[in-house]
């Protein structure tokens, strides 16, 4: 029969799919561990291994009750290398994915994909369309080259690409890092693209307990942006820049920055409130289910921008949660969790017509579909000027005579961002602006 592409709504019961995924991965990782370690070769990116799992079992596969299926593993040797690069041992990978039931997430994306998270919170499994799976295969050699040069990335970390074939359907899945650990409650979530055209959360989305808001919501809710220490700001923007360059080189666009915000101060208020009020509605204390640190290296937001740097001796105990410490406009302490998502959309697949007629309707800047260079440029500019801001160290309100009011002032003079005492914040900001526009051709767009 002809293989049709699977639409996630007419699914073989979810439990059967989950069972097939776990059987398939167990088998493929097991058989891979018997193959000797060796360097990845170009042809490894194009290998597809396929094995049949009849329900009555075979000399290679166990009997099971999910109905006959075929399981395909794409580029097994290459993905083994990626997993190794991120410090994921085969037994850990198996244990996370196959030891406990997978948890289905209530549909978080508009993509129609099904998402599962492993019960230890480590990995996400997402169904992808045929086109996306094909594109990921094409991407692998370039992705490989990039990771070898630079493990610090906000790009999705792909750990495996598989396909379950059953009853004439192809269900393709990709295993990725989980950006937003369930054990750290998110108070706010944003999906940001740097575009303003229709970029507002739908009324339906707003009904959720933690909706995923969009660009216009962000500009409205957080006009001051998210304040970062200069070191973290610089590291983050440099990472975004490198990642965008790679995406642009693959003609990829329409990706988003997913930002999860855990408000430390709000959480402690909620905790003390919960003690008085006897019980609270959940989104508070970090979950006690997480005794072990994350298995994957470079997988926390903090590591993806700074690699080894483990917070410079800050006293905040939340450091081990891997978020990047920041402050919101109220000055509350927050932890941010970020990553670039939805990169498997290549410009080549975007309906060409969309551009031609929309361009007549809107002025150029608001239409989302532009060529990848423009998209990357706008994305970076939005993230590094509107969303994230460098903290201005010395605000007059917090002046102290000692000159050591701020934590990381290396030498009181040198930094152009620290204002002489007589200055107002506005002057300091102006000074900071001019400093910025020297270093960065764009400067900041006016507020």
TrEMBL record:
Biased composition range(s): Polar residues: 415-424
Record-linked InterPro entries: PInositol-4-P-4/5-kinase_C_sf, PInositol-4-P-4/5-kinase_core, PInositol-4-P-5-kinase_N, PInositol-4/5-P-5/4-kinase
Pfam families found in the cross-reference section: PIP5K
Gene Ontology CC, one term: cytoplasm
Main subcellular location: cytoplasm
Keyword Kinase: yes
Domain PIPK: 13-387
Sequence segments annotated as region (Disordered): 268-290, 394-425
Keywords, ordered alphabetically: ATP-binding, Cytoplasm, Kinase, Nucleotide-binding, Transferase
GO biological process: phosphatidylinositol phosphate biosynthetic process
Cross-referenced SMART domains: PIPKc
Gene Ontology MF terms: 1-phosphatidylinositol-4-phosphate 5-kinase activity; ATP binding
Subcellular location: Cytoplasm
Coiled coil: none
PANTHER family in the record: PHOSPHATIDYLINOSITOL 4-PHOSPHATE 5-KINASE TYPE-1 ALPHA, PHOSPHATIDYLINOSITOL-4-PHOSPHATE 5-KINASE
Protein name from the UniProt record: Phosphatidylinositol 4-phosphate 5-kinase type-1 alpha-like
Organism from which the protein derives: Sinocyclocheilus rhinocerous
Lineage: Eukaryota, Metazoa, Chordata, Craniata, Vertebrata
Gene it is expressed from: LOC107741984
